[in-house]
Amino acid sequence: MSSENSVLLTDLYQLTMLQTYHSGRMNEPAVFELFIRRLPAERGFLLAAGLEQALDFLENLQFTAEELDWLDRSGRFSPDFVASLETFRFTGEVHALPEGTVFFANEPILRVIAPLPQAQLVESRLINLIHYQTLIASKAARCVLAAPGKLLVDFGMRRAHGAEAALLSARADYLAGFAGTATVLAGLRFGIPLYGTMAHSLIQAYDSEMDAFEGFATAQPNNVVLLIDTYDIEAAAHKVVTLAPRLSAHGITVRGVRIDSGDIAEHARRVRPILDAGGLSQAILFGSGDLDEYRLRELLAVDAPLDGFGVGTRLDASTDAPTLEMVYKLQEYAGKPRRKRSEGKATWPGRKQVYRQSGEDGVFTGDCLGLEAHPQPGQPLLQAVMRDGQRLAPPESLDTIRQRVRHQLAALPPALRSNQTAPLPYAVDIAPELRQLTAQLDRETH
Asked: pTM, whole model, 2 decimals?
């Protein structure tokens, strides 16, 4: 079993709590909800992602003989507790926002209903899986909003925080609206379109830049996008123009050029006329290098003649907001609502639903967080996706999720679509019945 699929990819306190529940025979149904306490200052909305991997984890959860042997030898746990884990499986139900749904603070992204030990154990990995893809998809969506109609490609694999992050960031970027990725395994695993050109090392390895361009074009005749900033950008552009007829005679078309350094807006302004005058008006200008939604907005604000962008480090590490305050909290146990009252970390109790209202134009006008047993006006967002530990439907295709994202982003209020800090946050009201239940619990003595 790979390490990312191991049940032991968790926090120690999950297992210490499980032994406590085992000793106390605490096995009644528990309801946990996963949500964001507060949006980062740089985010007016978030985009739910990672549900597919979360459900796969729940469906396949079990301890291996090797893991059980290691737990037994660790001396931390009683033999009867370790023995009980041999048949441990997730048998509960899950309600979740469909991937690609816009959401806001305090709104459940996912709800787990299962016997307490099962619902507890899955906490750490569920947060781990959903947090990262939600974080990256939310930033990728902001890039899509900042550069409408432009070709956007994920270039961030090499600086993503580990192998799993590199793969899942490619998925998150794509579902948010990117055209594809440079990460090859994402093509095999998820069917995501692959994009790539060359590195400066290829240019440097040849004795002449022209030879490098021709060598690459001959080797990759259907992917001729040439990197032109290794030496002199404008001189390289003229070389591309000179080379193009020779390549055309062999049925090879120059699809574009890439600029990866310097003031790419100014360089693009100088290169575009060179290409156009040389008969390469159809060739695209592709920019890369330390880009994100803020830089994309700046480039388009000055009318930089760039057709597409490779977005890497700042996206796949979400450098301006590298974490979300995502938590997974007990809201009900043994049929009774539960509420955490810690300072700055209090929760709304009970099984909740998110109800979204829209105007006649389809634009979201506000949400209401209410109890599932007391429906509110609007569209309920949480949907049943798993029962008795089994999915209720096959996994959604990435194309389906991408289409949902397009509709969701189009329905955002204009202030949120602009990527600017909204003058007022999106309205998420708390239903009266939920407030009443909260007040009732606060009056109880614990």
From this structure: 0.95
